[in-house]
Design brief:
Length: 180
């Protein structure tokens, strides 16, 4: 038997393969209080739980104005990143499935800092890679900035006052000594 319409005897289906990578980030400095003029050390870990690789991923951490610092980075499980930098992080990294990158940020807190120190890091997949769980792509560390102790200022003022009284008494005593 002859097929009267041979043009419909085959079909083609084309699908674009979508890469999926479950990216995540954590950030902590291990403390809840920061001191003005002191330092904080943050550990930031960006990772890829897969199933696909995530080349061209961006890790970002904009330091608040009250922080100045430097950072280093090491990869593991095939993850690669820029080895070191200063100031804020805006790094394009390679995160294969199962890979991670770890940043260590060492920052000085401004001596005039007050209130709360809030610092957020994010990880963002490059175009062509979708993240099925974007809720873990941002991490924030919050510290209370310790107030300068008023008692320390008072104590210093009291010492200065006693020192001044002592010097005045010494001067008065020396001034009353008979001249020989």
């Amino acid at each position: 038997m002859t097929d009267p319409n041979p043009g419909n005897n085959s079909a083609t289906d084309s699908d674009t393969i979508a890469s999926q990578a479950d990216l995540a980030i954590t950030k902590t400095d291990g403390v809840t209080t920061a001191n003005p003029g002191g330092s904080v050390i943050y550990t930031i870990i960006a990772s890829n739980a897969g199933p696909s690789n995530a080349p061209g991923t961006t890790v970002a951490d904009t330091l608040p104005a009250v922080l100045t610092g430097t950072w280093t980075c090491v990869g593991s499980g095939g993850g690669t990143c820029t080895a070191a930098g200063s100031g804020s992080i805006n790094d394009v990294v390679n995160l294969p499935a199962g890979g991670s990158v770890t940043y260590t940020v060492t920052a000085t807190v401004s001596a005039s800092a007050t209130g709360t120190l809030v610092n957020t890091a994010t990880v963002t997949a490059s175009g062509g890679v979708t993240d099925p769980n974007p809720g873990n792509n941002s991490a924030t560390d919050t510290d209370t900035i310790a107030a300068v102790a008023a008692s320390a200022i008072t104590s210093l003022s009291e010492w200065a006052l006693w020192l001044m009284v002592g010097l005045m008494l010494l001067a008065a005593f020396r001034g009353r000594r008979p001249v020989r």
